[in-house]
Every structure is written in structure tokens, then in C-alpha cells.
Amino acid sequence: MITNRKHLLGLEGMTSEEITRLLDTAESFKEVSERPVKKVPALRGTTIANLFFEASTRTRISFELAEKRLSADSVNFTVSGSSVSKGETLRDTAENIQAMKVDMIVIRHSAAGAPHFLASLLEASVVNAGDGAHEHPTQGLLDMFTLRERWGNFDDKKVVIVGDLAHSRVARSNIHGLVTMGVEVVVCGPPTLIPIDIERLGVSVETDLRKALEDADAVNVLRIQKERQAAGLFPSIDEYARVWGVNSRVLERAKPDCVVMHPGPMNRGVEIAHDVADGERSVILDQVTNGVAVRMAVLYLCSGGAAIESTEETEAAEAKAAKGKQVA
Questions:
Q1: How far apart, in whole angstroms, are the C-alpha atoms of residue 134 and residue 189?
Q2: How far is the C-alpha of 120 from the C-alpha of 9, rounded, in Å?
Q3: pLDDT value at 324 more than 50
Q4: pLDDT tier at 77 (50, 70, 90 boundaries)?
Q5: CB within 8 A of 269, min separation 6: which ones?
Q6: Residue 328: pLDDT band by 50, 70, 90 thresholds?
Q7: Nearest Cα residue to 51 out of 4, 1, 2, 88
Q8: How far apart are CA 72 and CA 64, in angstroms?
Q9: From edge to edge, which strands make up the β-sheet containing 104-109?
Q10: 8 A C-beta contact, residue 99 and residue 325
Q11: Beta bridge partner(s), residue 125
């Protein structure tokens, strides 16, 4: 478990020690993906159900790969063709799945608080893969892991988060995690897409992107959903790209080694320019790679695993235990 937690529902309220432990464990697991045989027996015998009530590509595949590389047994749930389409409630769905003796549930849901609701009902561990506009904790962790991998630590760093702050679960998890680790966080975007009380989370607000990027060590670019423009929250897509789009010109205000992040999927030419997304500053594909290691760490620790120094030690311990059973 993560200290005394068997669930990962969000980064809000987590301590710096808990976050560091997760990142350290992810670092130990990342090496697994570089092997010819990408597998360790850390969660052999553990059954994990992936409940995705929303469409997902990166997060879902990343969790499935993490589960397979830990040797867990996993089952996948989709709304289409399930009893949910016949009117079954979330509670009934989850309780029926748990009745099949599932050990852990990974859930993505459009309703904020859905993972917390399940955690209050079920014996299984619950991992939040994104709930409404609330949090996306594993995305926040993989973003921090990517930054720590680049920087070494979080000392004296400034991160700018730009885009739709009002509806972004990615932004909230990043803010909670980065502020806890002592990072200066600046949020930027159209005033209509910035919550009026966001400063209480420990961030500063700047609507001028050029000012926000001054001396920035990293910029995390959030996806702009076109339905926001249809709702009149900003004048037009072209206007957004002109004023708040991250391009090579505005990045000149940031530090020379400032890195560019994006949780995906990207709207190229809107919130991020093509040359920036594919440029030397971009760590976007590194984020995707690191997502598997981070989710391996989350699943392992939430299942009750102890912190490890290396995956080789995990394998050695498992082999020793298996040998002992054979002798007995």
C-alpha cells in the first residue's frame, strides 16, 4: 500500500514522502520495459478489473500493460454491451464484479467522486483513472516522474500549466502534486477557463501567456475541447491559438532548457504548435513511456507491496518463495 493507503483516489492530501515513494518505485519498475521479456511476477495471483465508463486510449492501454508486466490477471469492462446499457447502477456493477473475487478495481468515470464512492463500499482496492473534472492522479504522477527524470529533483522549479483549468482533472492532480513537492506553479489561460478560487490551491494566476512563461522550467499544455468554444467560453479556436497557443516564439520567454508536456490527445495548431510538439523541448512521448512504470508502481503499492530497490530483488524474492513451496 502507499504508506497506509490501499486506494489511490487523488493526489490531494498526499504527503511529499508518499509521492516520493511512488516515484522511486516507478523508477525501479521502468527498467522492466527495457527488457526482452517485459514481465515480473510481483502481482502474480492478483486479479484487477478495469472499469472504463469513458473513452480512453493512453490511460487504458497503459494500465493494461502495467498489469500484464506485473503478471496480474486482468479483465476489461466497457459500457457498450454491458448491463450498464440496460440501466444497471455503478454500485451494482462494482459489487457484482467484486463478488467474483476481484482484488483491485481501476475506474474511469465521468462523475467526479465515483472512485471515492466505490472505495467506501468495496473491499477491493480502488485506483482512480480519472473522475469527471476532479482528478487524474496517475497522470499527475507520471508528469512529475518525467520532470524529476529530467531535473533530478524539484528544487527551485517553476511549472506553467496553460489551457482549460476549469474542466481539467489533469491540471488538478498536477497542482496538488507539484505544490506538495515545493514547485512554483503558475496557471494561465482565458479568464473564463480559470476557476475563480484556484489560488487557494497554492498557485498564481496569469492570463498573459508571455508573462507566465518568464523563467519557466516546464510548461504543461492542456487540451482544448472544442465544445468549450461552442459554449462561448472563448471567442474562437483561431483566437485561442493566437493568444494562448504554445509555439516556439512564446517559448523564448521561458528558460532555454524549458520542457514542454501535454497529456494528450493533442489539438496540433490549437493549444500547441507542430514544431513544439515534435521539437527538442518536448517530453510528450517520454510521458507516455513513463506512464506504464508509474502505473506499475501504483498497482504494486496499492496491493500491499513494499518499496523495492530494484525489480531484480523482486524477482529473486518471488523465485525463493516458489522454491520453498516446492521443497515443502
A1: 18
A2: 11
A3: no
A4: confident
A5: 241, 245
A6: very low
A7: 88
A8: 10
A9: 73-78, 47-52, 104-109, 125-131
A10: no
A11: 104
Strand partners, 131: 109, 135
Nearest to 109, CA basis, from 139, 135, 80? 135
The set of residues, in sequence order, having a beta carbon less than 8 Å from that of 138 and lying 6+ positions away, is 8, 59, 62, 63, 127, 128, 129, 291, 294, 295, 298
Which of the 8 DSSP states describes residue 172?
A: H
CA-CA distances (angstroms) from residue 25 to 1, 66, 110, 294, 302?
Answer: 12, 13, 29, 8, 12
d(CA 152, CA 146): 10
Rounded to whole angstroms, the Cα distance separating 188 from 244 reads 8
Beta strands in 197-240 (DSSP E): 204-205, 218-221
Cell numbers describing residue 160: 506553467
> Is 127:7 a contact under the CB 8 Å cutoff?
yes
Q: Which residues contact 189 (CB under 8 A, 6 or more apart)?
A: 162, 163, 164, 165, 207, 222, 244
286: cell is 517520454
| DSSP state letter for 8 | B
Residue with cell 480512453: 56
Mean pLDDT of 48-75: 95
* Distance from the first to the final alpha carbon of the chain: 29
Rounded to whole angstroms, how far apart are CA atoms 72 and 40?
10
Closest by CA position to 270, among listed 301, 295, 296, 237: 237
* Residues 254/296, Cβ–Cβ less than 8 Å: no
DSSP state of 125: E
- Torsion sign over Cα 69, 75, 77, 81: positive
137-151 and 16-30 are packed helices; what angle lies between their axes, rounded to 10 degrees? Answer: 70
